[in-house]
Each structure stands twice: as structure tokens, then as C-alpha cells.
Queue: 4 jobs
Job 1
Amino acid sequence: QVQLVESGGGLVQAGGSLRLSCAASGRTLNSYNMAWFRQAPGKEREFVAAISRNGGTTRYADSVKGRFTVSRVNAKNTVYLQMNSLKPEDTAVFYCAAEQSIVIITIPAAYGYWGQGTQVTVSS
């Protein structure tokens, strides 16, 4: 099994940037596709970005394309989400997740491993 711990959340003004990190332990991350999801109060958890095992393939939600970048350093067992040009509607708890299918999946139910989440708040 793999354990995931997110960090890097916080309060930022609109237009600002944050970088989230997801550190893994228990198993090496290169066995897993990794994704970031977010959940705002009263809303369902939604897909944000994902990256394949070797980092060669990425996918993004339309709402974050051009603003967010997902990356990974397998040697450090860490995945990152660089978030630029943040908007108040980006306010949510952000979660990283891991799964082992052949292709990248954007459905939360497909992910078997989750971190505890980190709060991102964007003020207007």
C-alpha cells in the first residue's frame, strides 16, 4: 500500500500562486498514475489534473488548463501541482490520489489511495 500526504495549501489572493506537494511512503510512486482532485463545500469531489507513471502524459480539467501544472519526481516519491492565476472559485480542499490502471482515469472512484487533503483558499 501507499500512504499519501499533501502539503502546501494556504490562503492566497486572487491572481496568486501556490504549489502543492504530495509525498508518498510505503511504496514507490513509479507504480502509480497520480491525480489531484478538489472538493469545495457542498460540492462533489472533482478531477483537477493527473499524470502518468513516468510523467509522460498529463490531463487537466478544462477549468484549470493553462493555469495549473502537474509534475512528479519519482526519485523523491513526490507529485506536485503548481497553481497560478488562482481564482476564488479554486477554493477547495485539494487531494492527491493514486491508482494503477493502464490509462489515466479522471473518476474519483477509480482511485484506491488518497491523502488527507490540504485547504486552498483564494480571496477576491
Job 2
Amino acid sequence: QVQLVESGGGLVQAGGSLRLSCAASGRTFSTYTMAWFRQAPGKEREFVAAFRWRGSTTYADSVKGRFTISRDNAKNTVDLQMNSLKPEDTAVYYCAADRFYERPWDPQGYGHWGQGTQVTVSS
């Protein structure tokens, strides 16, 4: 069973930066596709970025060029560096994981989720 714990959320002004981190338990981290999703009040959970177990990354169009996902398989962590933040980035951000998962944008296939961390961007 994989447990995920997010950290790094907070309040930032528009144009600022934040770095989120997700720490995972378990010994097979490198076999998991890791992703970040977010959910704003009254909206559905949406895909942000993913780092596939094979090594490639994918991003939502809304964050391309501003957000960068990275992972450290030795430390069992996946980070999300968020730059040029906008008020519309305000949401609870969730870390998700599933083994050998090949549809990283689809939340239905993730069996493991963190508790979420709040990101608030003020205008």
C-alpha cells in the first residue's frame, strides 16, 4: 500500500512561485506513474502534470511553460515547481500514484491519493 503526503502549499501573490512536494512510502516507487491534480471550489478535479514510470512527463495546457514536475526515485518524492502563478491556479493540489499507469491525465485510474495541500494565489 502506497501512502502519499503532500507539502509546500500556501498563499502567494500573482506572479510568484511555490514548490509542492509529495513523499511516497513503499519500495517500488520507480514503477509508479506520479501525478498532480487540483480541485478548485465548485469545480471538478483536473489534471495538472504527470511523470510517467517510464520517465516522460506530460502537462495540462493551462500550466505548460509555468509548472515543472520532477521526481527523485532514490528519495521517493515527486515535486511540482510552480512559477508565474495566477489567481486561477488557486485550488487544493493532490498527489496521485498508480503502478505502471499509462493514462496519467485520467484520475479514474489512480488508486493512491494524498490528502491535498491548499494553494492560494492572490491578485
Job 3
Amino acid sequence: QVQLVESGGGLVQAGGSLRLSCAASGRTFSSYTMAWFRQAPGKEREFVGAISWSGGGTYYAGSVEGRFTISRDNAKTTAYLQMNNLKPEDTAVYYCAADLKYGSRWQGEYDYWGQGTQVTVSS
């Protein structure tokens, strides 16, 4: 069982940066792939990126590739989403999720979810 709590959201101007955190409970954090998804108003939840249990592998959605970076600190049982050069279209509620498998971009594969944190990018 893993419980996830996101933080770090807020209001930022276009071109700015934010770092989201996802704090996990449980001693098995290091076994899980950690992913970030987002959901904008009126849209379906979409995959943002994910990181392997060791941190050695990452993959991203094309819309954020080169601007967003996922990292993790297994000692702190926390995953991060560094977002640079933010655009108004990045405005969404951001969720972290965990799964034992690696490689999926489909939300249905992820077993554990946080409550989400709002990111708003003004133009």
C-alpha cells in the first residue's frame, strides 16, 4: 500500500518554473515506478512522464519533453516534477501515481494516486 501527497502547485507566469513534489508513505516506495499525470478543465487526464524505481529511466509526453524533468529521492520517498518554460496550456491539476510496472502511459495501469495539486500558468 502506498499513499501519495502532492505539493508545490500554484500560479506562475508563462515562461516561469515550478517544482512539484510527491511524498509517499510506505517502505516499498523504491519498488515503484512513479508517474505524473495532469487534467485540464473539460479534458481527460493525460500522461506527463514517469521514472523507474531506480531513477535510471524516464519517459515523457511529447508536449513536455525538454521542458519537464522527473526525478526521485528514494531515501526521502519523494518524487519530483520540475517544470520549466511553463505555458498557459500546462494549466491543470497535476497528479502523481505509482505502479510496480514500468513503461505505461495509461492511467488505468497505475494502482495508487495522490489527490492532485493545481498549477495555473498565466499568459
Job 4
Amino acid sequence: QVQLVESGGGTVQAGGSLRLSCAASGRTASGRTFNSIAMGWFRQSPGKESTLVSTISWSGVPTYYADSVKGRFTISRDNAKNTLYLQMDSLKPEDTAVYYCAADVTPRGVWASWGQGTQVTVSS
């Protein structure tokens, strides 16, 4: 299973920016490594269900963004460094959540590996 460790969370004022990172190691159950698997970012606010924020294919294209973050967040990956990123600009208080990276999605939309999460707090 791929191991994932997020970093880069913190507290920022509305309108500010943060860059999350997710370092990956290991292999999937089928033996694939980071540079051959899709990756994603999810977030969960207190009392709410986890929601998908963004995804990226193994090659970097295509990408997907939830409507709530489109135009403000940018997902990217560095396959040489086994690292996934989420650049978050123009942050809003409603972006406050624990952000999780996930790896290796099945055709049914089930993600096999998850990180421990990093807290992002946006103050108004």
C-alpha cells in the first residue's frame, strides 16, 4: 500500500494562500508506484462529510476540480519527487477543513490509500 504524508497546512487570513504537499512512498497492491497512479485531495469540515476537492492523473493531465475551488486551487505533481501538491489561493473561511491526500483510485471511485490529514484554517 502507498504511504502518504501531508504537510503545509496552517492558519491564514481570508484571501491568503497555502501550498499543501503530500509525500508518497511504497507501492500499490498491484506493484505500481507513485508515478503511475492517480492522486487526489479531499477535505472534511467539522460535522460534514468528506468531499472531493481535486484529482490528477498519473501524467498530470487531466485534472478535476470541485466547483467550489475551481479557479482558486491548483493541483500538481512531481513524479521525480513522489510528491503531490495543492496550491490554494484566494482562500475563504469556508475552505477551513482537514485536507487529505489519497492515492490509487479504482474504476468504482474507491481510493486505496489515505494520508493522515493536515488542518487548514482560514480566518475572516
